[in-house]
ATP-dependent (S)-NAD(P)H-hydrate dehydratase (Esox lucius), 391 residues
Amino acid sequence: VMERFLEQSAEAEQSFYQMEEQRLHAEDRRREAEHARELHMLQVLGQMFSGIAARNPFATAAANTAMPTSNAGTQPLVIERSFSLGSAARRGMDDILPLVKSIVPPLLSKKHKGQDGRIGIIGGCQEYTGAPYFAAISALKVGADLSHVFCTKDAATVIKSYSPELIVHPVLDSPNAVEEIEKWLPRLHSLVVGPGLGRDEMLLKNAKEVIEKSKSRDIPIVIDADGLWLVAQQPSVIQGYQKGILTPNFMEFTRLYEAMVSLPVPVHSDHQRSAMELSVAMGNLTIVLKGDEDLITDGNKVILCRQEGSGRRCGGQGDLLSGALGVLAHWAYTSSADMTKSVNPSVVAAFGACSLTRQCNRQAFHKLGRATTTSDMIQEISSAFKKLFES
C-alpha cells in the first residue's frame, strides 16, 4: 500500500510539473503575441503619421519648429530602447539556459578534490551565523568541492556546528585578518562577500582589503547583503572590476543607485533602465536586481529571469543565490564551451543562480507552503539543479 501511495504521489507531482510547464509555455506565447501586436500597432501609427506629414508639410515644419530639439531627439530613442530591451530579455531567457547547461562540468572519476570549485565566503559575526552557512552549504550542494567560511571568532563554533562539511576560519576580527585570509586566496576559485558580515567598521575594513587582494587574483567576486553596504559607502572597492557581481534587493539597489548616480531612483521607473545606468556607473559590473522577476544586466544587455518561484519570501534565500552564484561564476569563467564566448560569463552564471533559487523555492513551497524556510529550499537544490540543467 505504501509503495502504491508513493507511486501515486510521484505521478501526481510529475503531472503537476507538466501542467505548470504547459501553462508557462502558454503564457510565453501569449506575451509574444501581445508584443507582436504592440509592434504592429506602432508600425501602423508610424505609417499614418508619415502619410499625414506627407500631405501637410507646412504643419510638419511648424511642429518641428515648435518642438525643442532635445525632446525631438530623445523621445524616439526611449521608445525604441524600451522595446528592444524587452525583446532582448525575452529572447535571452530562451537562449541563455543552454549556455548555463554548457558550463556545468561533467563528473569524471579522474578529477581530484577541489577541481570543480573551492569557494570562499567572507562573513559571519556574532549576530549573523545563518547567512554564511546558507551560502557555503549551497555552494557545496550546487557542485563545489570545498567551501571556506572566513568569519569572526564568536561565529566560528556556531557555524561549525551547523555542518561538518564546511571549513571555518575564525579570523575575520583578528588583528591580522587580511594576512590570514590572503594566505588562502591562491586556493580559492571565487569569493562571496557579505552574507552575515554585519556593519562593524573593523569587519568592513577587513572585507574591503580582502576584496582588493582578491581582485589581483582575477577571480569572480560576488557581493551581497552588508557587502553591498560597503560598496555603497566606497564604490571604488569593486568599481570597474569585470568579474565583480552585485546582487542587491530593491532597497540595496536604491542605496547603490543614489550613491553612484547622485539621484534617487525615479518613482515608477523603468528598473531595466535604472539597473543599466547603475551597471555603467560601476564600470559595467554585472548587476542582479532581485524582485518578482530577477533583472540581470552588465550595462550592455538586460536578461529577465522569470522562472516561477512562489510568494514565500523567508530570510536566507539571497544567501542561497549568492553561494550558488559563486560556484557558477567559477564554472562560467573557466568553461571551454564556445557558446559562452558570445555572452558575459557573469550574466550566464547569474541567470543560472537566479533560476535555481526560484526553482528551489517553487519545489519547497509546493511541499510545505507557508512553512517553507531556506533550509527546506536547500534540500531541493539537487533535484532543482537536475531538472533545470541536466535534463
